[in-house]
Amino acid sequence: MTTDVENDQTGLQAARQQFKGAVVEPPTSQRVSANPLIAAFQTNNMVQRIVSGLLLGAAVSVYLALGPAAAPIHLCSFVVSVCNYEYAWLSHRIAYRFTATYAHQSQDDDTVMDIVPLDVTSVAASRLPFGARYPKLVAGAVAFFGTGIVTTAFILLQIHLFHYETVTYMSIYQTPIVYTWIDFILLIAISTWITVYCAMITPTFASAVNLVMQQCMYSLPLVTHFTCYRYDTHCYQVGFESVPEVNIVVLVLINRVPWWRHVSKAQTIEAVLHVILDVVGFAYIAMLMTPV
């Protein structure tokens, strides 16, 4: 996905610079290994997809076979976070292309000046200390910090609210499934880490906030699934998970629309596009991947 964005960047920048009468230098090609196998993996997209598919398929099969009882739920949460990360870059590129096209066709110098070159090198973590040089390390550190806070909060909730009990119930196949409190903690820890990490490597802070919000709306039914007679002998309704569609629309509007500042026409179009794309992304990814 990011490779496609990088390939698209040159064309968009060239169109903008040509509109101004300038020329864009072609990007520097990456270094390729002398080993033919490594070189094929570096340059051939099909080889990358095949190798990734084999590795992911094997890892998923082993995890589902040897993992905890809630392994499918953990896996779905992981997939939703990764898909939201990929979709964040896709929507970032789509919004830029539409906005840039509008600016160039409007023949308005002020509107054109609002369009800056598409940035595919900076991520949300790049705005943090040391993030410009080590964005992935900073993203991982922030993810570990956030995971520690959220996991500790849920452990404290267990001590004062939930019950340390193992609950056995019959699945739809009439086979007993045992849920223990460690499954619940694993879900919280894994989901939080991958969510925060993916959010930190999205293109902008607004994209990062949107990813976290969408993951929270996706996770509310999962948390209730654990805390309502499965993880616990009581039923706790966590949050307002009955209307996630309404919740996400309101949160996206708050996050994407510049309510408190004056914006140009191009920025208005970009905000509207992001709202539409974010809502579509939630319906396409989170709602279709809900395992409960």
UniProtKB/TrEMBL annotation:
Keywords: Cell membrane, Lipid biosynthesis, Lipid metabolism, Membrane, Nucleotidyltransferase, Phospholipid biosynthesis, Phospholipid metabolism, Transferase, Transmembrane, Transmembrane helix. It is a multi-pass membrane protein. One of its GO terms (biological process) is CDP-diacylglycerol biosynthetic process. The chain crosses the membrane at residues 50-66, 72-90, 137-157, 177-200, 271-289. It is found in: Cell membrane. GO terms for molecular function: phosphatidate cytidylyltransferase activity. One of its GO terms (cellular component) is plasma membrane. This is Uncharacterized protein. It comes from Aphanomyces astaci (Crayfish plague agent). The lineage of its organism: Eukaryota, Sar, Stramenopiles, Oomycota, Saprolegniomycetes.
